[in-house]
Amino acid sequence: MDKLQIEGGVPLNGKIRISGAKNAALPIIAASLLTEEPVNISNSPHLHDVTTMIELLACLGVDVTLNEFMEVEIAARRLENYRAPYELVKTMRASFLVLGPLLARFGEAEVSLPGGCAIGSRPVDQHLKGLEAMGAEITVTEGYVCAKTSGRLVGCDIHMDLVTVGGTQNLMMAATLASGTTRLFNAACEPEIVDLADFLNALGAKVSGQGTSTIEIVGVPRLHGGAHTIMPDRVEAGTYLVAAAVTGGRVHLRDVAPKTLGAVLDKLQQAGAELTVGENWIELDMGGRRAKAVDIETSPYPGFPTDMQAQFMTLNALADGTSTITENIFENRFMHVHEMKRLGAEIELHGQSMAVVHGVDQLKAAPVMATDLRASSSLVLAALAAVGTTTIDRIYHIDRGYETIEEKLGSMGAKVRRVS
Ligand code: EPZ
């Protein structure tokens, strides 16, 4: 099992390119099932999760290839089956996003329930409630969601009980081929929802309101082929900005979308970072200063993203002052706290959703273990700042969401290497 070895204490200094967004690529690849015509997706990140989604489409019988420009070319002309097996879905819950497209295009789908993961139980009740409202017959047997519809799904108003990114995506995709109009109320506003809607509209769908809490989809009989460029990954960008902040360094990110990082940039400024922002670039200069502690409260977009909570735990662990971090989205997203305490962080957990962080002058290297994707990135950040050489185990979690992480860090002066 691969590990990362990081010798800390080096202020990062350099320029890197931000990759395409994992959380936009996954639903967009799933949405390619909605048309029989060829689809070309560029700027997709080369990550394990993207490979898993491509594998899933291939096992459904879809022609998927990576061309010489590393663009994903998909043609879902006819499928051999409509079943997303547990073996794949359990490794990546975003596989559940094939449910809506399969049901809308083929009238049937058998998708394994994704089950829980390290950060929470992660139910899919809102996905199923919405699809039933559109006329799907849904049964859950032996861990599989079996969905059928005789004829097309029927558009309708759907009031979602809570804000769910995946639920909004599954229902938006399903509604594109429904007869009539669907309106999703209390929909998620994340930029990845907007990117998916833009892709669907490029294929001839009629989606509007994306980015707001009410999304309207006017159903059409079929979608045609098209091309799309995946938006930049705002979480990868935020992670590298925090890396520069915790090491007192300076980083210039290009091919990034600053508008999708408003809450994160605001907190970095509060922490004392000097930020310069262009159309598609961001520069952070910490100037050797120690960060100031900042209180964090996660909430749906445009609030502070839960996917940046662990990274700011590291920033606060080393900051001047005491801060509170409240996690409102997932019920178990403090797994990194136990590992960070091994590095000398002073963090008190209050129940499942709040942590009080007392900043310390320095962290000390120790062997630690990654537990989930964003927790592992917070350990990388801690190791970059810690005194000594830290070894992080189970870094397959990192490879799910950070493309060529050691190369990008290394290009900014970090002393990092992957060891088996
Ligand atoms: C997406 O997960 C992202 N994953 C997550 O990023 C991200 O943390 C999350 O949205 C929140 O922004 C992808 O896009 C692939 P949700 P998703 O449905 O769609 C509850 C990362 O690190 N809920 O918005 O699964 C759920 O339990 C990953 O890149 C229900 O109760 O998240 C959670 O508490 C981690 N019923 C909350 O809603 C439902 O039917 C938000 O979940 C659906 C969700």
Please tell me about this protein's structure.
Helix content is 31%, strand content 24%. It has 420 residues and is of the alpha/beta class. The chain has a four-stranded mixed sheet with strand order 22-23-1-24. The protein has a four-stranded mixed sheet with strand order 2-15-17-16, with helices on one face. A four-stranded mixed sheet has the order 4-5-3-14. It is elongated, with a radius of gyration of 21 Å. It starts with a strand and ends with a strand. 51% of the residues are buried. The mean pLDDT is 96. Ligand EPZ binds next to helix 1, helix 5, helix 6 and helix 12. The site of ligand EPZ has 23 residues, from helix 1, helix 5, helix 6 and helix 12.
Helix count, DSSP H or I runs of 4 or more residues? 14
Largest sheet: 4 strands, mixed
The distinct ligands, each listed once, are: ligand EPZ
Adjacency order of strands in the biggest sheet = 22-23-1-24
**Overall radius of gyration:** 21 Å
Enumerate the spans where pLDDT stays under 50 for 5 or more consecutive residues: none
Overall pLDDT confidence? 96
Coarse structural class: alpha/beta
Amino- and carboxy-terminal Cα gap:
6 Å
Q: Let me know the number of strands.
A: 24
Shape: elongated
